[in-house]
Amino acid sequence: MSLQHSLYDSPVFQMACRQFDLAADAINMADAMRDRTKYPRRCVAVALPIKRDDGRISVFEGYRVQHNMSTGPSKGGIRIHQDVTIGEVAALAMWMSWKCSLVGLPYGGAKGGIVVNPLDLSFAELERLSRRYMQEMISIVGPHKDIPAPDVGSNEQVMAWMMDTYSNHVGHVEPAVVTGKPISLGGSAGRREATGEGVAYLVRAYLQDLKIPISDATIVIQGFGNVGSAVAMALHRWGARIIGISDYTGGFYNPKGINPKKAIDYIAYARCLKDFHEGEEITNEQLLELPCTVLAPCALERVITEKNAGRINCRLLAEGANGPTTNEADKILEQRTEIEVIPDVLCNSGGVIVSYFEWLQNLQCYYWEKEEVFQKLHTMLDKAKDSVDYQMRKMKFSRRLAALTLGIQRVAEAKQKRGLFP
Question: Which of 175, 207, 224 delimits the end of a domain?
């Protein structure tokens, strides 16, 4: 039986399934393993009623999809965004499975979502919604079941509320139930900037492979949120020039360079980049086509499409976001041999790697300094990069197909070895 036209059906889930099918074909996966490995194990949809500040009751919709739990507890962020769908959440959970497997973490993939624009909520309303979501999920999450983390629209504070809600339910402090927490509640040093640090580290490594000095590199970042700003700060610190940044309000281009710290300080005050005035105002569409050494899409899915894939003008495409490149765009990029792609399952894996470190530290009640966290992160990224590039050369695959086949094959092998419970 195929689940293709099930409740998960959406453009982004179809895209993830197409990636899986291409990888499964490439490694000749047995038919008996395909649907078991592809489709989510479990999904939960909940109604989330909360009292608004003015006394009204509003009901929001929330989801949690657990894609794979054969390799360990599932792991994945909670996205709070007005456009969240259960199909998108399922696709993100699927990518988390391949990502965790690729970099060697003892996790399966999961993802959560709440359908609301967080900017439409007050601080108190966001707290009530976060706590209600965790309350509804208590039966399926836990340090050895499923470990949520921040994603688009959520942050350290949201994780703190969720950890407190779970801890009150079980009767003791349980920091390992979520990652991405504040340091004071068991968060890991370096977790906040971990995804961006990983993207920047891999960018620097691939620039070295291409024999491009980082001081000569120009960087364009689409999506100047938590990930994009951390990418910008790290690459700026290492000597690269940030010439373009954007968020949902639009972008700014300055060929002489943008100081990312000024942009971060501006957003802390204004909550967005609108009226930043540190460069020429451009649209997100124009920003994606700027001539640059490195283009890093760090926002939402499906921004590089068949319409603009032929016009992007970079040497290295670093996918800080999940699923930023559509299947049709991928075919175009494979023909453009002048562009090297660092696929999302490798490129943005720094976040889940340091989430794993946070979980380990919580379980051990022993905490590491930031330098040690980043040293361990870089070691794991180097190992994953080497395995992907070796697979790419050996099998004559694209780098994305190499990364996906490694991640998917490891999950399939685990399922096969465990067998099928009667």
Answer: 175
